[in-house]
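ASSEMBLY PREDICTION REQUEST
Request ID: AP-0331
Submitted by: J.K., bench scientist
Number of chains: two
Total residues: 226
Priority: normal
Notes: Please return the full assembly, not individual chains.
Input sequences:
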Amino acid sequence: MSATSGLARTPAPPYYAVIFTSKRAGDDGRAYGEVAQRMVDLGARYDGFLGIESVRGADGLGITVSYWRDEAALLAWKRDTEHQKAQHAGRTAWYEAYEVRIAKVERAYGFSR
Amino acid sequence: MSATSGLARTPAPPYYAVIFTSKRAGDDGRAYGEVAQRMVDLGARYDGFLGIESVRGADGLGITVSYWRDEAALLAWKRDTEHQKAQHAGRTAWYEAYEVRIAKVERAYGFSR
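STATUS: Completed
Returned structure:
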């Protein structure tokens, strides 16, 4: 992930994207923010992690896209024990709704000044 | 797209996702905002459009994911004349950098209260 732009520097396709779109339930900000950041740091240590892009708007809608070498890599992260606890907290406390989409990136192109 | 949550209501996979991640160059807010909204409205009229999710953070990083029935549908929208003008303005004025990834959604699951 490029620290300056927030855009992930991914290799040439094919690779996988996990598109996680969520709507926050309320604002118990601090605990959520700490766990969310911890999940980014922890996921990035997994073999096959390629990058992450994440934005949350003022209205509580957020999109996080993480990129993975292959399905085995993203499934290993999904099953991480600490991540599973966070997923449970997401359903019971943090999110009003979310959607997870697993997609195979086939083509990519970009632009930078 | 669900007006209440901001999450797109997409059909069962497979379908396509266009992940557009961008970093704004500056803040000429109004013209950009108007064109961005126009592109959402115009794209939604295209055959094969399934939904859109879009968030921009306070730091200028934005993620917009649009969903499409198939590749032909998303390519038709890419080639739209007015959309092409907006793409040009994006490169010359609005964005410092962006990345477009075309991905085939293979699986999806969600949660809602």
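REVIEWER COMMENTS: The radius of gyration of chain B is 14 Å.
SIGN-OFF: pending second reviewer
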